[in-house]
């Protein structure tokens, strides 16, 4: 076995030093009935050649489609330099930076990640990353409750991606936190209902999406003032790629920003690994869960980076910690750090511009087919919902037959369509032709 | 040269430089983003670096040179199972037929991916002796939380709502109590005996109808197998509780005994420990959760199933403990772990535990004259020294750890478990050769000798690393966590 | 040797209270600050919060430890030591001068449940 270095002679010599006669004796203290004595019902060892063939065949059972699906996960351009850089063994095979003297690579890129996330969101401080956008939002909910102390209700807009809502609701349920939904009106959060619910004086936090699940850019003017007047935290789940253009969570007056950074170039990879971000104002940094990297100096006065504010964390605070997260989604944080470095502000804006133009072109053309109508008449970014005159499943099937994943079905007659900078006019025109022919 | 590199990417920035290329926006004229209402647009530009692609490549290559990974050298970090991470796993995970797959692709068009998920889950069931697995949790701690949610949901669905406490050993990792608290459970600690195992006599009076269950690792954090586990399982089950297995130490028993056979009802596995997926500087990992027969429906949604025709589909169960992830976990990590299991095959999976345990005992026996071994006897995959055997030198565990860095090793886990003041927790893993271990043993002996003959060189270590000991107090008192704050 | 001041009341969890009329000044002892090491942050309640004897009202953090602050007395917080926000190290330099909260005592007789200087000295010398 190529991963085991032990020769028979090694084993014998080592057993002698260990003072036992056989490998089995190493388990001598274990009650006999607990020992596993049969063959595993697993395949026999496969060679590299066989493994490659095996996974190529499996992979071919997945369809390769031109992707107009979004709903939180988008098909973005990923610069070629990222994969080889994050694959460097020094990054890939390190663990969390417990020994800062030999982990400055990891610590510095996390510092750069934190800096960039704060630039993009406008927030003061962020942690070293979370698992994904759904759990980052659940952690934001937990922060709200921890900060509010005696309140245990949070509000979440119906325009939030249901995948996020259900994770927040799951976490909340086990903590006795009440989650109430703020209903939508014409595809946006009903701010009148929000005001009514806040007036109850028992709300710890309000969680809103930007852009929302339907791709609409909501106008949150006055929301921060409303939340703060009622001593509630304002949490914004914002798509980071769009923040190159959109008003930032900080500019809207949010206390906490969170979301999934998959749209910063991370491959879709059937749902993960992605990376969640969680950022907040300085006032709330002590309640921010997870790792945080700070700058300092070493004994020679040299600039260096180190895990800081660790006393908040689970391994020290144990059951008093706000969160049980141990580490971070480090390598994926490096992924988006390199992405943002390569793209810069200009590149991010240009990707937004391409996505926006494509989405608005496609929306107009789909409506022109007479088979689709826009569900909402609201400003949208790179995603939009259309009602189809034929069942959505039929539309999707027709598109799949031509190699296109036409979007995400969100109701029997409603399709959510997403366009990124990767989509060409020719691909969109093809999609329009197919829809028209139905 | 390399060591002197200390720039931040922001410090390479020069106005006007770019590192990307995108297609021309041929639709811009009629569909311009400028049409978006001004009140929805950001006012202040973000200060991101303006650098070339080549700047980026050199910068991150230089940064990587200030890092230490398993690829760099021996990494005996206890409880973290820093084994070799095969490159084949990486290659398979980057196959475009998986990497370009959108999670909303209909099941009929993603059968390959669902088959990977289903078969990996089945393999984990076989290896651990449990009935079914979810692969949705993203990490060990996340798996722990998920497992405890299942535990709570189990009791609540039976109308047994009084069970709000979970027992954890006093030697447990801090994550166990934190996970329990996040899941709305109160912690009750059970004491350890002198040899570090759960004190069954101390456990008995804790067991009543308010106990949801117990969380244990086996072997425990000291690398000691809990031989009383059948009795503990009997007692906990008798009082109506469930047993949770923290899979942090699964590598010790891989192929030799199974948590399911020990009596555990729920467990998580760290794919990044036991199944060789890279730790990635802290993540992504994956924390599959398994349950015994009868609890399958409680696994988080969505669930992957196979119908009688052999087709895979995505299902949701209304009685599930809930949703803990965006979709089906860190799928790319699942591909790596599945590749590893298939590469090992049934004949080699059985050897992982024994060889890991052999390596640990070899190191332990070779060093126990120089370092104080508080618990004698055969250990499992890891063991703990309580500092140097010679207590007169004033050299601490921290000093020893830092001195090891000078000699080109990652330090062991230090100051954990908390049962001893000077814990040094060593886990060699099965992928290290006798030669590597011999060299490490020689260096550990050398450090012990230095501690007597030249203690200052140890106390001031490291000397040869890119940076030396850091001022953590100032970092915490006046946190500077972004480039913007650093410039102020 | 940790400093202990006569006339204060001490709790087993190493907080002290200095009673002045109807008010009590609560802080951590010299022994406690020494055990913690360099204090980097003091998490304090807000004015008007209620505290209860035996229950936590905040925490003290050092670089790698965090310790809950357990109130030795019950009452209402009338003042918190704002200086600790910017200079948490004051707790290290003189923990008795740099109290953490000032409490309007609900029941002055509660101090009977606490230790005097001699008893506390005996506790930490154990």
What are the SSEs and their pairings?
The complex is a heterotrimer of chains A (438), B (488) and C (126).
Chain A: H1 8-18, H2 48-59, E1 66-67, H3 82-86, H4 89-92, H5 104-121, E2 125-126, H6 133-148, E3 153-157, H7 162-175, E4 178-182, E5 184-185, E6 188-189, H8 191-199, E7 203-210, H9 223-229, E8 233-238, H10 249-252, E9 256-260, E10 276-280, E11 293-297, E12 303-307, H11 314-317, H12 330-368, E13 372-374, E14 383-388, H13 392-401, E15 404-405, E16 408-411, E17 414-418, H14 425-436
Parallel strand pairs in A: 1-15, 3-4, 3-7, 7-8, 8-9
Antiparallel strand pairs in A: 2-10, 5-6, 9-10, 11-12, 13-14, 14-17, 16-17
Helix pairs in contact in A: 5-12, 6-7, 12-14
Chain B: H1 53-64, H2 87-93, H3 96-99, H4 111-128, E1 132-134, H5 140-157, E2 165-169, H6 175-182, E3 186-190, H7 200-203, E4 211-216, H8 229-238, E5 242-246, H9 259-262, E6 266-268, H10 271-274, E7 289-291, E8 303-306, E9 312-315, H11 331-367, E10 383-386, H12 397-406, E11 413-414, E12 423-426, H13 434-453, H14 455-459, H15 472-477, H16 483-487
Parallel strand pairs in B: 2-3, 2-4, 4-5, 5-6
Antiparallel strand pairs in B: 1-7, 6-7, 8-9, 10-12, 11-12
Helix pairs in contact in B: 2-11, 4-11, 5-6, 11-13
Chain C: E1 9-10, E2 15-20, E3 23-28, H1 30-36, E4 39-43, E5 50-51, E6 56-62, E7 66-70, E8 75-80, H2 83-86, H3 90-93, E9 101-105, H4 117-124
Antiparallel strand pairs in C: 1-2, 2-3, 3-9, 4-6, 5-8, 6-7, 8-9
Give the DSSP E fraction of chain C (strand runs of 2 or more residues).
25-35%
Helix percent band of chain C: 10-25%
Strand adjacency order, main sheet of chain C: 1-2-3-9-8-5
Q: What is the end-to-end distance of chain C?
A: 13 Å
The name of the CATH superfamily of the largest domain in chain B reads: Type I PLP-dependent aspartate aminotransferase-like (Major domain)
How large a portion of the residues of chain B is in β-strands, by DSSP E?
Answer: 5-15%
In which range does the helix fraction of chain B lie?
A: 25-40%
* Beginning-to-end CA distance, first to last residue of chain B: 29 Å
Q: Residue ranges of chain C: pLDDT <50 for 5 or more in a row?
A: none
Mean pLDDT of chain C: 92
**SSE topology string of chain B:** HHHHEHEHEHEHEHEHEEEHEHEEHHHH
Radius of gyration of chain B: 25 Å
The major sheet of chain B is characterized as: 7 strands, mixed
CATH class call of the largest domain in chain B: Alpha Beta
CATH topology group of chain C: OB fold (Dihydrolipoamide Acetyltransferase, E2P)
Count of structural domains of chain B: 3
Task: Tell me, briefly, the overall form of chain C.
Answer: globular
Tell me the overall shape of chain B.
Answer: globular
């Amino acid at each position: 076995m190529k991963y085991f270095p032990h020769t028979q002679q090694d084993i014998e010599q080592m057993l002698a030093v260990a003072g036992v006669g056989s490998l089995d004796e190493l388990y001598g203290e274990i009650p006999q009935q607990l020992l596993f004595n049969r063959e595993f019902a697993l395949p026999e060892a496969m060679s590299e050649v066989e493994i490659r063939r095996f996974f190529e065949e499996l992979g071919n059972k997945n369809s390769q489609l031109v992707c107009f699906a979004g709903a939180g996960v988008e098909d973005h351009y990923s610069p070629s330099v990222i994969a080889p850089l994050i694959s460097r063994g020094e990054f890939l095979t390190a663990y969390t930076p417990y020994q800062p003297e030999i982990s400055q690579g990891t610590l510095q890129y996390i510092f750069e990640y934190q800096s960039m996330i704060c630039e993009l969101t406008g927030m003061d401080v962020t942690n070293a990353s979370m698992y994904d956008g759904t759990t980052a939002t659940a952690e934001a909910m937990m922060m709200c409750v921890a900060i509010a102390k005696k309140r245990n209700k949070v509000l979440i807009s119906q325009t939030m991606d249901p995948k996020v809502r259900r994770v927040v609701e799951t976490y909340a349920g086990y903590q006795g936190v009440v989650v109430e939904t703020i209903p939508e009106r014409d595809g946006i959060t009903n701010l009148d209902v929000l005001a009514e619910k806040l007036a109850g004086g028992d709300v710890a936090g309000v969680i809103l999406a930007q852009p929302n699940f339907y791709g609409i850019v909501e106008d949150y003017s006055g929301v921060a003032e409303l939340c703060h007047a009622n001593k509630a935290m304002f949490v914004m789940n914002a798509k980071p790629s769009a923040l190159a253009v959109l008003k930032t969570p900080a500019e809207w007056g949010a206390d906490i920003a969170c979301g999934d950074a998959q749209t910063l170039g991370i491959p879709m990879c059937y749902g993960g690994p992605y990376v969640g971000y969680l950022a907040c104002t300085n006032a709330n940094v002590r309640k921010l869960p997870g790792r945080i990297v700070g700058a300092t100096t070493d004994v020679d006065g040299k600039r260096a980076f180190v895990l800081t504010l660790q006393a908040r964390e689970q391994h020290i605070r144990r059951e008093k910690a706000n969160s049980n997260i141990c580490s971070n989604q480090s390598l994926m944080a490096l992924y988006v750090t390199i992405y943002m470095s390569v793209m810069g502000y200009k590149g991010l804006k240009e990707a937004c511009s391409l996505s926006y133009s494509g989405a608005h072109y496609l929306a107009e053309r789909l409506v022109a087919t007479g088979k689709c109508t826009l569900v909402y008449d609201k400003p949208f970014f790179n995603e939009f919902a259309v009602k189809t005159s034929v069942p959505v499943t039929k539309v999707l099937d027709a598109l799949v037959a031509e190699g296109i994943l036409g979007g995400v079905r969100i109701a029997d007659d409603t399709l959510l369509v997403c366009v990124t900078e990767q989509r060409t006019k020719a691909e969109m025109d093809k999609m329009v032709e197919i829809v028209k022919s139905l | 040269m390399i060591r002197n590199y200390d720039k931040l990417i922001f410090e390479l920035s020069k106005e006007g430089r770019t590192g990307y290329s995108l297609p021309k926006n041929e639709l811009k004229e009629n569909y311009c983003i400028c049409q978006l209402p001004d009140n929805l647009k950001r006012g202040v530009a973000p200060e991101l670096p303006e650098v070339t692609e080549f700047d980026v490549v050199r910068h991150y290559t230089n940064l990587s040179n200030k890092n230490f990974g398993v690829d760099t050298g021996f990494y005996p970090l206890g409880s973290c199972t820093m084994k070799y991470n095969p490159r084949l796993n990486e290659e398979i995970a980057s196959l475009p037929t998986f990497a370009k797959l959108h999670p909303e692709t209909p099941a009929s068009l993603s059968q390959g991916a669902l088959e990977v998920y289903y078969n990996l889950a089945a393999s984990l069931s076989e290896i651990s002796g449990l009935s079914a697995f979810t692969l949705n949790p993203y990490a060990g701690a996340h798996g722990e939380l998920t497992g405890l949610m299942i535990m709570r949901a189990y009791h609540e669905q039976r109308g047994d709502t009084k069970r709000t406490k979970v027992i954890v050993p006093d030697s447990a990792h801090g994550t166990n109590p934190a996970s329990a608290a996040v899941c709305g459970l109160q912690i009750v600690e059970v004491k350890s005996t002198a040899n570090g195992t759960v004190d069954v006599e101390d456990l008995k009076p804790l067991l009543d109808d308010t106990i949801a269950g117990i969380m244990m690792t086996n072997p425990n954090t000291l690398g000691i197998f809990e031989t009383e586990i059948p009795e503990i399982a009997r007692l906990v089950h008798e009082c109506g509780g469930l047993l949770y297995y923290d899979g942090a130490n699964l590598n010790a028993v891989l192929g030799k005994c199974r948590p399911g056979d020990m009596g555990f009802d729920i467990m998580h596995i760290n794919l990044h420990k036991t199944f060789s997926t890279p730790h990635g500087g802290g993540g992504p990992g994956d924390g599959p959760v398994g349950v015994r027969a009868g609890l399958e429906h409680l696994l988080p949604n969505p669930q992957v199933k196979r119908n009688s025709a052999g087709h895979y589909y995505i299902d949701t169960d209304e009685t599930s403990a809930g949703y803990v992830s965006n979709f089906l976990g860190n799928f790319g990590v699942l591909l790596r772990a599945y590749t590893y299991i298939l590469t090992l095959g049934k004949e080699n999976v059985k050897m992982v535990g024994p060889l890991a345990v052999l390596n640990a005992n070899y190191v332990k026996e070779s060093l126990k004259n120089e370092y104080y071994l508080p618990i004698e006897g055969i250990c499992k995959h890891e063991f703990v020294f309580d500092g140097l055997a010679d207590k007169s030198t004033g050299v601490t565990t921290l000093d020893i750890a830092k001195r090891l860095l000078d000699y080109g090793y990652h330090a062991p886990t230090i100051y954990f478990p908390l049962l001893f003041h000077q814990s040094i927790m060593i886990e060699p893993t099965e992928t290290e050769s006798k030669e590597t271990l011999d060299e490490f043993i020689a260096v550990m002996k050398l450090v012990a000798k230095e501690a007597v003959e030249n203690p200052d060189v140890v106390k001031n270590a490291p000397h040869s690393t890119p940076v030396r000991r850091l001022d953590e107090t100032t970092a915490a008192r006046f946190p500077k966590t972004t480039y913007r704050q650093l410039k102020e | 040797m940790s400093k202990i001041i006569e006339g204060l009341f001490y709790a087993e969890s190493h907080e002290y209270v200095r009673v002045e009329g109807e008010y009590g000044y609560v802080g951590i002892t010299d022994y406690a600050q020494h055990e913690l090491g360099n204090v980097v942050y003091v998490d304090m309640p807000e004015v008007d919060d209620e505290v209860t004897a035996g229950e936590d009202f905040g925490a003290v953090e050092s670089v790698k430890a965090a310790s809950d602050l357990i109130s030795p007395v019950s009452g209402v917080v009338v003042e918190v030591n704002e200086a600790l926000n910017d200079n948490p190290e004051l707790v290290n330099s003189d923990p008795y001068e740099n109290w953490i909260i000032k409490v309007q005592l609900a029941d002055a007789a509660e101090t009977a449940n606490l230790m005097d200087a001699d008893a506390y000295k005996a506790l930490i010398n154990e």
